[in-house]
Write a structure and sequence with these properties.
With 249 residues, this protein is α/β, with parallel strands linked by helices. Helix content is 35%, strand content 28%. It has 8 helices and 10 strands. α4 (116-126) crosses α5 (131-144), α4 (116-126) packs parallel to α6 (160-172) and α6 (160-172) runs parallel beside α7 (190-202). Mean pLDDT is 88; it is low at 1-11 and 242-249.
């Protein structure tokens, strides 16, 4: 690799996947306006492993919804892989979410009448992927999270940890560039939560950008970068450790 090629690789790795500038979000409450976000500046590059933490009412869930293009800010600029999000049509935003962003929710959000593999297939169906290819990729995603043998089971037949693994497989099936996890260990016991955290942190090895919104202090100790938010503002944004692999390699 020539010096010029090496420099191009470094620049590409350092280019932001997500760039927020002075993001604000207000809600109307009767005669009053509630300011949920009050000028958020945040830059996230490819392959980062980040936790966003803060007390209830701090604005972290609103921030997560804006990051996931589920909610439009009142003011400010959001660029996703260089594209201004505010200029994208609703259909374009839906396509962007389906192609580039994987969501993991605290409540799993699995459809109870569908099997695990059918739940994982859902994003591919919305994207127009053919049935045989959907099944192949969904089974591959379940194998990746250690549930290859549980694909025919419905959510009610799975443990909480298994349901969260199905949700993670669904988030990964489109190979998104960003995975957003909202309280991913919140409904799980300590041992199961640790296993889910290990799985999420390992995604960095595959080049995914992982952002977790959480109250769980264990997550804050395991990520590379911790963003603390309070009263709609970023109070702290810093490195937890120096860019090591989640397994310490």
């Amino acid at each position: 690799m020539s010096p010029g090629d090496a420099a191009a690789v470094v620049r590409a790795a350092d280019e932001p996947v997500i760039e927020l500038t002075d993001i604000r979000k207000s809600y109307s409450s009767g005669r009053f306006a509630v300011d949920a976000l009050r000028g958020i500046d945040l830059r996230i590059t490819r392959g980062e492993l980040i936790a966003i933490m803060g007390p209830s009412g701090s604005g972290k869930t609103t921030l997560m919804e804006i990051l996931g293009c589920l909610l439009q800010p009142t003011a400010g600029s959001y660029r996703f892989r260089g594209a201004p999000v505010e200029a994208i049509t609703p259909d374009g935003l839906a396509a962007l979410r389906g192609r580039e962003i994987g969501f993991v929710f605290q409540s799993f959000n699995l459809l109870p009448r569908l099997s695990a593999v059918e739940n994982v297939e859902l994003p591919l169906g919305y994207g127009g992927v053919r049935r045989r290819e959907r099944r192949r990729r969904a089974e591959q995603a379940l194998e990746r999270v250690g549930l290859a043998a549980r694909g025919r089971h419905r959510p009610a037949e799975l443990s909480g940890g298994e349901r969260q693994r199905v949700a993670i497989a669904r988030a990964l099936v489109n190979e998104p560039s960003v995975v957003l996890a909202d309280e991913p260990t919140g409904n799980l016991d300590t041992h199961t939560g640790e296993a889910i955290l290990e799985l999420l942190t390992s995604l960095k090895r595959d080049g995914a950008t992982v952002v977790m919104v959480t109250h769980d202090p264990r997550i804050g100790e395991r990520v590379e970068r911790l963003v603390e938010i309070r009263d709609g503002r970023i109070e702290h944004d810093g490195r937890v450790r120096s860019g090591t692999d989640p397994d310490g390699v």
